[in-house]
Amino acid sequence: MESGTPGGSGPAEPGPRLRGLGGALQAAWASLLSGAQAQAQAEGGCCAPAVAAVLPAGGSGERMGVPTPKQFCPILERPLISYTLQALERVRWIKDIVVAVTGGNMEAMKGIIQRYQHKRISLVEAGVTRHRSIFNGLKALAESQPNSRLSRPEVVIIHDAVRPFVEEDVLLKVVTAAKEHGAAGAIRPLVSTVISPSSDGCLDHSLDRTKHRASEMPQAFLFDVIYEAYQQCSDYDLEFGTECLQLALKYCHVKAKLVEGSPDLWKVTYKRDLYAAESIIKERISQQMCVVMDTKEDEEHVGRCLEEMLKNELNHVKVMSGRDLQQVILEQCYNFVCVNVMTSDFEKTQKLLNVLDESNLSILYPVVVISVHFLDNKSIPFGRKMEDLMQIKELAREVKKRNILLCGLLIYYPQVIESAKGRAFVKISDPESMGRLTLF
Ligand SMILES: Nc1ccn([C@@H]2O[C@H](COP(=O)(O)OP(=O)(O)OP(=O)(O)O)[C@@H](O)[C@H]2O)c(=O)n1
Ligand SMILES: O=C(CO)[C@H](O)[C@H](O)COP(=O)(O)O
After folding, report:
1. Which residues 6+ apart lie within 8 Å of 222 measured at CB?
2. Which region, left, alpha or beta, applies to residue 80 given φ > 0 means left and ψ of -120 to 50 means alpha?
């Protein structure tokens, strides 16, 4: 068993991050906690139930038909598996994440962990089938080695490395249900009817679609249940089985609770799925925008006006004062409009770029920054202003190396407007008084 992070990163703070979860889920978590706490107290310990995850990532992705195993295929220049790891590691109550990779991909995987700063990851050698890879992950959790930071969890989540869009709510639902029933898994309605062909290639019978479901991931188990099932199961199961819930039923008589999952839980299998995954990621990161203003006063005018306009297009728009720049990072937003009203040309933008650099936000996704500038026709001529602003080219070249895409917007307005330029923005949104917008 190898530690994925050379130099090691300690486990995350135990305890759930419940932001955004509904009341029913919070109650579910509370009951999960209380059961575990009672047991922990009885054992003289404390804290939440130990939850770990096993991610099989040792396949070759034959159906995708490209030389690179699909879990390592890039989406927006980042390997698919990194998105799945990110989805799991942001769930703070998952203590350990064990990833099964082939010996040949071990170094590449370590590189990914280091480059994208993944935490709480341990690597094990994959097996020749998915079930064998999972079994290896479970063994690493069951039999903690002298130098291993892993310990036997109470509940284990099993999730395919090639299902990147798993959300905290479904993870919580399967873990909670597994605690109660011994096993649980996400399901989806069938898209197509399942039929059974006979040996002559004709229809034998078809299944009633309303009575069947597609089994997806994640699944969760009481660790003792699934480990026992894997220890008991036959070579045939390990070789040809595709369903962990079935092993729990067959070998431990545990009937899994089935939990409705979201459509995004589907497994990246064919090449076109990579394009679909890319579109989903782009859609998600483009729906959030931060408008950074350089004074509180202008925030009232330009900021609020811009916010109203953008809200027609985007789900989440937030206006922030230049003084709250550190807060920007906590928002996990990847699109910024930085309005330089009061400060000299690039002062605000430069401050934002510094904060972004320090945060390492752009390691995970490309960050877009639009630097907005104003010019009224009574001050310096348009051409001179543009010349001054052309220094943005150099800045843009520099930050592009760090995955930050910077461009400028010059708003040139014809009238002198007495008070804050915020009003000028209101005016230019009106085509009658429109001056000139120049993207540079
Ligand atoms: N020996 C194997 C085979 C598969 N998997 C993993 O199990 C998950 C689901 O399997 P699947 O989608 O079938 O992946 P592949 O086997 O890689 O794909 P294919 O069947 O097209 O070859 C994937 O994360 C895959 O990497 C694994 O860990 N070890
Ligand atoms: O479908 C599944 C539900 O149990 C598993 O998630 C798994 O993806 C099946 O893998 P494979 O395609 O290799 O059989």
Report:
1. 154, 155, 178, 179, 182, 183, 254
2. alpha
Ligand 1 centroid to residue 55 C-alpha, Å:
10
Substitution site in 55, 80, 130, 160 for ligand 1 pocket (most atoms within 8 Å of beta carbon): 130
Residues at CB less than 6 angstroms from ligand 1: 56-63, 69, 71, 100, 126-130, 133, 160-162, 267, 269
Report whether 369 contacts 402 (CB < 8 A). Answer: no
Ligand 2 centroid from CA 243, angstroms: 6
Please state the ipTM of this predicted complex. Answer: 0.95
Neighbours of 111 (CB within 10 A): 12
Query: Which protein residue has the closest C-alpha to ligand 2 atom 7?
Result: 242
Tokens in use for 396?
């843009």
**Residue 276 tokens, joined:** 């679909």
Output the tens digit of pLDDT for each of the chain's 440 residues: 655 433 333 333 333 333 334 455 556 555 555 554 445 444 544 456 799 999 999 999 999 999 999 999 999 999 999 999 999 999 999 999 999 999 999 999 999 999 999 999 999 999 999 999 999 999 999 987 777 889 999 999 999 999 999 999 999 999 999 999 999 999 999 999 999 999 999 999 999 999 999 999 999 999 999 999 999 999 999 999 999 999 999 999 999 999 999 999 999 999 999 999 999 999 999 888 888 887 666 556 777 777 888 888 888 888 877 667 777 777 778 999 988 866 667 888 898 999 999 888 899 999 999 998 877 767 777 777 777 778 888 999 999 999 999 999 887 766 544 444 433 333 343 444 445 666 67
Q: Whose CA is nearest to atom 9 of ligand 1?
A: 160
